[in-house]
Structures are given as C-alpha cells and as structure tokens.
Design a protein that fits this description.
Layout: H1 2-16, E1 31-36, E2 39-44, E3 50-52, E4 64-69, E5 74-80, E6 89-99, E7 105-109, H2 110-113, E8 119-126, E9 130-140, E10 146-157
Length: 159
C-alpha cells in the first residue's frame, strides 16, 4: 500500500512539473509587422515573407530585416548602422524602404536627406536562435511624398 501511495505521489508530481522554458521555436511565431500611414501590415515567416539577414546574435557590422508579400508585391525592410552584440540595444537606421505596389516605392537613407536620424530599431531580445525588436522610420517616393512607418515589430530567427 505504501508503494502504491509513493507511486501515485510520483505520478502527480511528475505530471504537474513545469515544462522547460526553452522550447523549440515555432516558425509561425516569426513575423514583421508595421503600421504604414495608418494601415497595418503583417508578414509571416511561415509564409516565406519575413526574414532576418543576419546569421547570428553577434554580427557587429549591421542588422537587416526584410519582408515581402509575393502575391501583392508589398515589401518592407531596413538596415541599421552597427550590429548586434548579443544584448538589447538601440540602433539607428541607415536605410529603409516600403513598396506599396510595383509603382509606389518609398525609401530613405542617410544620404538621401542628409539627416542621420531617419529612424530607429530597438533590439528588445536576442539569444542564439532569434531576435525581437521594434522600429520606425519615414520614407519618401520620387515626388518627395512622405509615409511614416510606425509601431514596427519583428521576431525573427537567425539563419
């Protein structure tokens, strides 16, 4: 009887134990999203739309995010000045773009308007497998019409 009681206690204990906080990444959870002139867009990596062009959490030269929707030709992306060092940090954006369709292309870079403060990317989480952050920037078309990319967020895995 004592053995049965111990067995029941062990079963209850083992089945109620918390799972490890390090679980395999789910590709459906990787994304890039942003609000562009009031309209929300989202690109998901499980649909082959969102990507991180950095191969690890300590790429010190630059950090790049890109996303595209192959059906609608809606693209977004940016490159930062400086890269990752394995820790959360703020990086200035040196180049950004948004393509609304094949004919409406907006971009910005430090040479385009002479301003070094065209946007920002804040790395909020980085580990050996993935990176998360927020971003914003303004971009312009050929007619110098501005669009604002705000509330940008991403969660992407390293490739």
């Amino acid at each position: 009887m004592k053995n049965l009681f111990i067995l029941i206690i062990l079963v209850v204990f083992l089945t109620s134990c918390k799972k490890s906080s390090v679980e395999p990444a789910n590709s459906q959870s990787y994304f890039v999203e942003a609000t562009v002139d009031g309209e929300k867009y989202i690109w998901r990596s499980d649909q082959g739309e969102a990507s991180n062009k950095v191969d690890g959490p300590t790429n010190k030269g630059w950090f790049m995010v890109g996303a595209d929707n192959n059906d609608e030709k809606i693209n977004i992306g940016f490159v930062t000045i400086g890269g990752l060092d394995g820790k959360p940090k703020v990086l200035p954006i040196s180049y950004g773009y948004f393509t609304k369709n094949r004919f409406e292309i907006y971009n910005t870079n430090v040479n385009l308007n002479g301003d070094m403060n065209i946007g920002s990317c804040t790395i909020t989480k980085v580990n050996n497998y993935e990176v998360e952050g927020i971003f914003y920037y303004d971009a312009y078309n050929e007619k110098k019409e501005k669009i604002s990319i705000i509330n940008g967020r991403f969660k992407l895995k390293f490739y």
